[in-house]
Amino acid sequence: MQNAHNRDVRTVMKRRQFLIGTASGLSVLVLAACGSPSPQPTKVPVPTGAPSVVPKPQAMQRSSWSIDPFARGSFSFPAVGASPEHRAALAEPVLGRMFFAGEATAATEPGTVNGARESGLRAATQLQAVGRTNERIIVVGAGIAGLAAATQLREAGYDVTVVEARERVGGRIDTITKGWPNPIELGPSFVHNSTENTLDDEFATLGVSTLPFPRVPQARTRAREVVPLSPLGAEAVAEALAWAATQPQDVSVERAFVDSGESRLSDALNAQGLSDADWLEYEISTRLKMTSGALLSEQSAWYTPAEPLADDDLIVVGGYANLLTSDAAALDVTMASVVTRIAYDDEGVSLRLGAGEALSADRVIVTVPLGVLKDEAVEFSPELPFAHRSAIAAIGVGVLDKVWLRFDEPFWDTEAPLWTVVGTDSDFPVWVNMLPITGEPVLMGMIAAENALRLAEASDEVFLTAAMHSLEPFRAAT
Question: Pfam families from the xrefs (predicted)?
């Protein structure tokens, strides 16, 4: 027993050194180089060896937003050195002919469905301030930003065409219905800040079910023990970010932890095999990485929220894409048309499509995701103004992927809808149990940042193996 305990302690220490020691090392590199190192995905081995004790599911559906050519990431986040002014700069019209929308340009709630839609309405209003109702308008992208903009302009009397690269509308709103007892979401699943926006009311009007979803999770150790949540990790995050707020320039969340001293939490194990440092790692994996989709070395300490969102979330169980159906049906949407080049001057715009076709219009609203702009998948002629290019370079793009698993019957022993793992490395540190929500033995797992990047191109078999190993703390005792 003593030897086993020593092995467990060594495993915990190695994990601590990986989490905090790497941060310290990068902090030293930052100081030595007087610049920020280019962060790389951490190569953590996928579980191999003995099969998982979790039974194999009957069905699996996964997302891989980082390698999706029409997304190249899940959502924007505040990167080190970026500021709200960068989002405002990206939202500025160019020559009164080209307008930008999408969640990365949102003045409020960037990274969200509500923020994306508001950005589309803002871009349409900007265009209306300089345009005439007999003009031809092209909207690039049939996500919620593009559809919102196009709908407002069509209702105002403009001749509007939406050009969409995919063979479906919705963009990163992606609802799957075939083969599942209830609709599942590869993109957003929740309505956040439901007391401050109207999305839940709109879903109710559409007859789409939404249900309250608690943010307080059940936390388990690798040994399947349910443990009470500790505030230590959240307190360390708040203290590190408060320290960063007093600094003369923005630093990464990673550096804020190290230089404020908040990374130096005790490694001493309690009776449950957990330490104070475990709870910091828990806060990092279940909140900071989940909300940004990024490494700590990439996240801005000035603009990363110190506290989690208010506990007023709703989970959408009737299909998020229904939010788009009526708008899309009333619009002229050209599918499977990839825009590769946009030329503009003070007289109009012209677009080149991937198949070689050309389109012309008086004005254009561009709603392609920030990741696509970063990768220069769309050529602009002339090149964009410096302020726009600087904004595109500065704002971060994070990755959060999901896996949905359907089982014949539950193998787990809890009715908690939200599961988390503490004290162990887990590719999928957050799981949603749909059984108490829909009555179906379906689980949704979330994977973010470097783990999502590492597994994005993995085979379904490798991806599923990682997911099943991450579920082992929740199996029922035998």
Answer: Amino_oxidase
The whole-number pLDDT of residue 192 equals 82
Helix (H, G, I), strand (E, B) or coil at 297: coil
The whole-angstrom separation of Cα 228 and Cα 234 is 14
- Domains by residue range for the chain, with CATH: 2-63+216-308+399-474 (3.90.660), 79-174+321-394 (3.50.50.60)
Q: What is the DSSP letter of 165?
A: S
Q: Which is it for strands 190-191 and 314-316: parallel, antiparallel or unpaired?
A: antiparallel
pLDDT digits (tens, 9 = 90+) for 33-61: 333 333 333 333 444 445 778 999 999 99
Arithmetic mean of pLDDT over the chain = 89
The 3-state DSSP class for residue 24 equals helix
Q: Check if the beta carbon of residue 350 is closer than 8 Å to that of residue 343.
A: yes
Tokens, residue 468: 């099943």
Residue type, 168: R
**Contacts for 441 with CB less than 8 Å, ≥ 6 apart:** 406, 407, 408, 409, 410, 434, 435
> Using CA atoms, how far apart are residues 395 and 303, in angstroms rounded to an integer?
11
The burial of 231, by beta-carbon neighbours within 10 Å (0-12 exposed, 13-18 middle, 19 or more buried), is given as exposed
Look at the pTM and tell me if it is higher than 0.85.
Answer: yes
Cα three-residue angle 232-109-427, rounded to 5 degrees: 50
| Residue 194 CA: distances (Å) to CA of 204, 209, 309, 361, 418 | 13, 14, 11, 38, 18
